[in-house]
Here is the input.
Amino acid sequence: MLILKIVALGPVHGYGISQRIRQISKEVLQVQQGSLYPALHRLEKRGWLEAEWGESDNSRQAKFYKLSAKGRKQLAAEHSNWNRLSEAVHVIMQAAH
Amino acid sequence: MWSWRHPFRKPRPAELDNELQFHLEKLVQEKIAEGIPPDEARRQAILDFGGAEIIKEELRDVHRIPVLDAISTHLRYAFRVLCAKPAFSLTVIATLTLGIGANTAVFSAIDAVLLRPLPYPNADRLVVLHEYRPKQKRAEGFVAPVRLEDWNRLNTTFQAISGYYTEDTTDTTRGYYAEDASNTAAPLPVKIKRAFVAPRFLQVLGISPALGHDFTSADEHFQGYAPASVLISERFWREHFHSNPDAIGKPLLPGSGSATVIGVMPAGFSFPAEDVELWYLVPPDAPYARNRRNTWYTAIARLRPGITESQARANLDLVQRQLAQQFPATDADLTVEVQGLKETTVGTARASLWLLFGAVSILLLIVCTNVSALMLARGMEREREFSVRSSLGASRFTLIAQVLTETLLLAICGTLTGLAIAAASARVLSTMAKSIPRIGEVGLDWRLFLYTAGCAVFVTLLSGLFPAFRASSATPSGALSRGGRTQVSSRGRAQWTLVSIQVALAVCLLSGAGLLLRSFRALWQVSPGFDASHVLVFRVTGGYGETADIPKLRQSIGRTLDAVRALPGVQAAATSLTRPGVPFGYPLELASPDSGLDPARKIIAESRYVSDGYFSAMRIPMVAGEPCDKHSEGTGAVVNRSFVSTYFSEIDPIGHHLIVNRNTPGAQPSTILGVAGDAREAGINHEPVPTVYWCGLTIDPSRAYLLRTAGDPAGLTNAVRQTVHSVEPARAVYDLAPLPSHLNEAFAEERLRTLLLTLFAVTALLLACVGLYGTMTYFVTTRRREIGLRIALGARRNQVWLRFVSQGLIVASSGAAVGLGLAAWCAKFVSGMLYDVPANDATALSAAVGTMLGVALLASAIPAIRAARIDPMRALREE
Here is the structure.
């Protein structure tokens, strides 16, 4: 879900994704390359991501990932799921006080 | 532009490299930006990044489809294993080819004849309608043109109703009454089959002419006896108009009075018969078509969408009741029969084809069992290999999959060669089985491919599963420690069971073939009541229109008859409407008002229309009275002995009168002149039934001429053609052959299924014997040491020999016993096809068992003798 959310912001390469997750989560979350790339490829295979080779900022070839229409739907679904779940957890935690 | 990527596309290794490399570069740059020197930055980045190779491996896993990988490994290994033992592989493939080839060939016939729809749009809605007289319990068959029009107008369940009849003629130009001599350009006139159809004929079939147009409403109104328009077949168009599109609008033949060609039918259109060349429309308002008693059409109709046959039948019955009130004299006792057109076309071939299919399926089962036994034997040889593999960690599933893959590979090879054989045999089949309708349509289609693919899977599972489980149960410790010294007697049971299954199935097939053979023999040994030898039969073309002038037609027939009687070598000649012994039923309801019989009792008798001299030409003896002669034409009749014993047992029939209840052309009462012996007129496979021979009555232009010859009837064919041509230059002679070959042709289907079933049964017998022989040989080979030891210890060679032969015979007889039970169950499928042989005929069954046991004895004796000759010293020293 996190990857989908990052990619939803615009076409981005693998390095960019790991950077952004780190930045946005204020260094709380770190994604290891060892799990990032298999995850990306899996998402691509499921058709949620589309990938294309493009030029990066320092004019090197890089693989850019972009959200597909199917991925957008999936993101929306997972987002609402997450909201429900976190809300539930939050309520339970409140009640336990 | 973002490209669409195929989900199964595997990324190239370089792409993975590039992607990861890029990430690494970025990390390095990041470190440098933090102020770390480049070399150190790179070192740290690589450390951070972790093992690139591991990631790449994981990425490849993401894109891998594990099942496919496993399958390709299995396939490659299986291929190597099979190539290593080419003799084994070829044996299995050849066996499978035989089984699958035969099965596919028969299925292709079933597909073409029974499964594929007729070649018309929505052909499942096409039906045939018959007039049915419930009181006489027989379908009238033909429909009167007026009634057909009434049905078409009054019903609510059909899109359209039409009809047709055909005639064999040389007359291509004019209509129903014309006798035309213009088509004599060829040395001898050529027979042409033409169809006369009711309106809406093509509309019912859902076909339109390939060129030109259908009949118009103008054609549906009577404008004179010569029809104005004609549709021609594609073949006729090719041969007579050189495929010139200008043919439309031209007269059929040069000269006046010829019908105009209005359309060319699509190539391959062959309704109602293969050889119809011309289609004419009969206007329903023509004077000769208005009599409600004149029935001549075979009615075809197209159901409205969603209407079932029974709904249509109910609707037509309602219509017919209405007509019965309106025309009580002619329409009162009629109901309507509705039958699917395909059903009617296929007829009796259905039962024959399913019988053959059952036979080849049994053959395929034998093949599977055979292959299974081979694989089992092979699996025992490979026990070590499987043990090694399983001790190296191969799971049981992997081993099963491996054996199944090998079987599948063999099955695929067998299927492909089998398919090739089936395709080749389709041609042979369609020439051999001309009597089976639609057999010419045999060809490859998706259903056949699906079927053979199913066959391959079926064969794989059936013949591979058992050996696979056997092989996979190999334990690492067992086989490895025992090495090659194992005694396999405990494992022999499975193989012997397979052999006895083969024997059982083969006995079942042999019994079926035996029954059909016995029945076929009985058919030809029956005394038909007439003498078919030395009789030459032919027909002469003529149109139905000629029956309008009966005296003229009678003259013409007499002229031909006199001419052929004058031929040297002809002892007698006569005509009949039908060929004696060739199945044909024409029962009529009769009355005999002056005989004092109970008028309430119905007299129903087969009717035959014969000329003078018929009884002497066919050598049917007269029991009493006189036969037909020239003077009794149209006024006399002869009845057979069955007729007398059924209806006239108390009074002398001679001198009394018979009259056909309906107002057919034979309506005037005929005097019974004499009583003839019983003859199997209506088919040599039917008991003689009460029959009336009407002397000289002419109701049909087409008749069979029967010539009794002194020598070989076939030697007279040319003389007959020339003679008929000299007296009737405009008519063609056809169906010219000795009577026995007419009879042969009439029973071609019986012959074909007997022949094929026998062929399959013999193949089954051979396969079962090869199975027995192979297993016995294997058994002997694996026990060489034991036999050697026994002989060394003093066993007599006779004992050894006897032991193996009796083992073979025990297996064969237990199989045969099961086979007999199986045959008894299968007999109900053939019982309907048997003539004069009971389904539990002892001769056929014991012959089947005897043959099987005899051949089994032979097949087990050879390896047994070999066993008895084993040299103990060599056998024991071998290991």
